[in-house]
Write a structure and sequence with these properties.
This protein has about 375 residues and is an alpha/beta fold. Helices cover about 45% and strands about 15% of the residues. The longest helix is centred in the first third of the chain and has 17 residues, at about 80-95.
């Protein structure tokens, strides 16, 4: 058996071909799975590979196949549990399929997204682009040229292969749940202006409130715990304060919950709180946060697998412009339990309790 060590060169594909008594092309067909070979040829090649401890050179393989076995992912941001969970799901699928990931952030800026795409050309076999702005998503897809592109969170009318969340339907479900628990003064902490997902969740809130004949209160947020905390403080200062808050994502819901409790309001007895996304933190805070679950990691896994199918179809799927819609699931936790009593604000202030955050988390 050939052993590697000092002075021993790694085996080449020509060494494998000589030992197996076949052509280099036959070895390549066996190793890449591209093209037919006889069973006896395949067996001889694999025996030679094992005997010589041959490791295919990834760079040479990519030159001969025009494939890099790498997928590019462009996110609007790299911060937060949502994107962490999404990449976790993509990474699990990529490893299972023999692919690698290159991840970059556009910082919600079209020019930076363009620069990221240009830097990935020639280095990736396909792109997954997350953009909450439809124009930026379409621009990114156009810049990619022939490169297979899958859009996420860019709007259901993108006209390209895409995966989107039913944000409108999820928001309606959240508000209807709060109404069913007896709440009538339901406020909404909205996401950033111009963000398609935030706008759809706001529209769902407004529609559900109008259907119930209830007044609306909307406070602007930025999808961060800090903005949720600021909005929660504003809501707590109202007279009377809302008896429920639906935040456009879990981070803002957690920040709002803390601000409400700091102001002497009990959650959920005085003010119920619901979020959206079901990031891991939602089940860890106290009280546990009611939210809309979209199984973020699973969505990432599905996106990666779909893009790889697109890549491996060698262009046959270019006419596929299907938009896959992910339906959120309402997960009810104690933060929206029905109220059982309504003590005065003065008595509430003395019994205020802060929401529990994992160590190191700040609003």
């Amino acid at each position: 058996m050939r052993r590697r060590g000092a002075g021993v060169k790694p085996a080449t594909i020509r060494d494998v071909a000589r030992r197996a008594e076949v052509s280099v092309a036959s070895v390549s067909r066996v190793l890449t799975g591209a093209g037919a070979v006889t069973e006896s040829t395949r067996k001889r090649v694999l025996e030679a590979v094992e005997a010589l401890q041959y490791v295919p050179h990834s760079g040479a393989r990519s030159l001969s196949t025009s494939r890099t076995s790498t997928v590019g992912v462009i996110l609007p941001d790299l911060y937060g549990e949502y994107f962490s969970e999404l990449i976790r799901g993509m990474d699990v699928a990529a490893r299972a399929l023999g692919y690698h990931l290159i991840v970059s952030s556009s910082h919600d800026d079209a020019e930076e997204a363009s620069a990221a795409i240009r830097s990935m050309r020639g280095r990736v076999d396909g792109l997954i682009v997350l953009s909450p702005h439809l124009g930026a998503a379409n621009l990114a897809a156009s810049l990619a040229g022939r490169l297979p592109v899958l859009l996420m969170n860019g709007g259901a009318d993108a006209g390209r292969p895409s995966i989107v969340v039913d944000n409108h339907g999820g928001a309606v479900a959240a508000v209807e749940h709060l109404i069913a628990t007896g709440r009538r003064r339901i406020a909404h902490i909205a996401g950033p202006a111009g963000n398609l997902e935030a706008e759809a969740r706001l529209a769902g809130y407004l529609e559900a409130m109008a259907a119930a004949g209830l007044p609306t209160t909307v406070i602007d947020g930025a999808f961060t715990k800090a903005s949720g905390h600021e909005a929660g403080a504003q809501l707590a200062a109202m007279t009377p304060p809302p008896d429920a808050v639906f935040a456009a994502n879990d981070n803002m819901a957690v920040g709002a919950m803390l601000a409400l409790q700091e102001a002497g309001l009990r959650v959920p007895e005085d003010t119920a709180v619901a979020g959206f996304d079901d990031v891991p933190l939602a089940s860890l805070v106290r009280p546990g946060l009611t939210t809309l679950r979209i199984n973020i990691a699973e969505m990432g896994r599905s996106a990666l697998e779909r893009l790889v199918r697109f890549i491996q179809s060698a262009g046959a799927a270019t006419a596929d412009a299907a938009c896959e819609v992910v339906r959120p699931e309402l997960v009810v936790r104690p933060s929206t339990n029905p109220a059982t009593d309504h003590p005065t604000r003065a008595s509430r202030a003395s019994a205020a309790a802060a929401v529990s955050l994992p160590e190191g988390e700040n609003p």
